[in-house]
Amino acid sequence: MTATKIAIVGLGKIAKDQHLPSIARSDAFTLAAVASRSASGLDVPTYEDLEDLLKAQPDITAVALCVPPQVRYELARLALDYKKDVLLEKPPGATLAEVHDLMRLAEANGCVLYATWHSRHAKGVAGVKDWLSTRTPVSGRITWREDVKHWHPGQAWIWQAGGVGVFDPGINALSILTEIMPVDLHVTAAELTFPENCETPIAADIDFRGPDGFTLKADFDWRQTGKQTWDIEIVTKDGTVVLQDGGATVLIDGKSVSADEALASEYDGIYAHFAELLATRGSDVDLSPLVHVADAFMLGKRVTTEAFHDEQ
């Protein structure tokens, strides 16, 4: 099998920490170029501009967009206009309408469009989805608390309109929730806490409801120091399951159970799935996590807190 030549657009922290290593480990892809203002020290051609890259290397057939969501739409349209297959980092866009437009363009141009949700590839997720499929959920709770200064140092775009703030990690929890739940949920209320100097929230409390009286509360917070918390608990009529450590650890009725063999990275799962999509020429764009974020903003009560400063 010939490896797909892929270009990365935006060489920030997530691209360096996750995309580059996963592409290097994959037999299905070879990194052929990078478009980024901060690219250096790589053994592939680098460009500041995506269109320059596409014109210079027409044999590249796939593009991974790792830029902030506020600027991703125009770059994705450009790549699709050049008939390239496109992988979108999460969240797939700054708005739902943007992504719907990309879906239409990808279909019209015969391109593969893949909206990635890396947390769905955590090793415990598939098993919990299977366990819940034969049970009736009663209630649930998400606790997703981490230290933004550790995970997103100096990333000012996150605090600007369209950067989604605490939903940048929180949408990982929602991507798992929408994958494992055997029923559909919707947001009924939210309280969003904004630093007085930021355009996006640093914390969010969200209420969800499902069929037959199911309720779930989500607690997202970017101000936690020390041990980080990424937990999802679902209570059913026949037991309770907890996904901890972002989906890596599974507890059923308080007892640890073995999960599937872990990938070296959740992003290895992303690129394995992208390779499958390219082979079958099918797109995968599930917007359900982003819908919940949009609804939380629609229904959210705004609370103001002290200013946030990025200094450690």
Automatic annotation (TrEMBL):
Pfam families per the UniProt record, alphabetical: GFO_IDH_MocA (PF01408)
InterPro entries in the cross-refs: Gfo/Idh/MocA-like_OxRdtase_N, Gfo/Idh/MocA_oxidrdct_glycsds, NAD(P)-bd_dom_sf
Ranges for domain Gfo/Idh/MocA-like oxidoreductase N-terminal: 5-114
Gene3D superfamilies xrefs: Dihydrodipicolinate Reductase, domain 2, NAD(P)-binding Rossmann-like Domain
Entry superkingdom: Bacteria
Protein known as: Gfo/Idh/MocA family protein
Taxonomic source organism: Roseibium aestuarii
Lineage, highest ranks first: Bacteria, Pseudomonadati, Pseudomonadota, Alphaproteobacteria, Hyphomicrobiales
